[in-house]
Amino acid sequence: MPSGYALTVRFTLRDAAAARQFDDLVAQTAAGIRTEPGTLVYAVHEPVDEPLVRVFYELYADREAFQAHEDQPHTKHFLAAREQFLTSTEVTFLNELGGLSKRPGSEG
Q1: What is the pLDDT of residue 103?
Q2: pTM of the model
Q3: Reduced to 3 DSSP states, what percent helix, strand and coil does the chain have, rounded to the nearest 5?
Q4: Which end of the chain, N or C, is surrounded by fewer C-beta atoms within 10 Å?
Q5: Which residues of the chain have pLDDT under 70?
Q6: pLDDT tens digit string along 7-32?
Q7: Using an 8 Å Cβ cutoff, are 22 and 54 in contact?
């Protein structure tokens, strides 16, 4: 069964204006991410009742695909530009338990 490499990132934004600018930056970056073959899921969420928080869930085919994502010019630009909008960032790296997961490509 496939086993991926994943992470969640919780971003806390400075204020409503920073949230709008951050969302614009994410939208610009997403265009490049959509072409990454090893990036299986790149989902951005706003928690209910937390308008200044964004939670990313990222799933990669493997650790090498994650590194390929990190090495892309659009990702490097995002990582540098995002800091001006944030008050905090929390990253959690995850190892997928493939036998317990349901996602595209995990059937079989």
Answers
A1: 67
A2: 0.88
A3: 40, 30, 30
A4: C
A5: 1-3, 98, 103-108
A6: 999 999 999 999 999 999 999 999 99
A7: yes
Contact yes or no for 13/20 (Cβ under 8 A)? no
Residue from 33, 8, 11 nearest 94 by CA: 8
Give every CB contact of residue 64 below 8 A, 6+ residues apart in sequence: 38
Pick from 22, 11, 2, 4: nearest CA to 66: 4
In degrees and rounded to multiples of 5, residue 62 shows phi and psi of -170, 180
Q: In the structure encoding, which two tokens stand for residue 78, read together?
A: 């995002």
From 26, 29, 28, 30, select the one nearest 13 (Cα to Cα).
Answer: 26
- Write down the pLDDT at residue 100: 74
8 Å CB contact between 100 and 57: no
Residue 80's contacts (CB-CB under 8 Å, 6 or more residues apart) are none
Residue 33's contacts (CB-CB under 8 Å, 6 or more residues apart) are: 39, 42, 69, 72, 74, 75
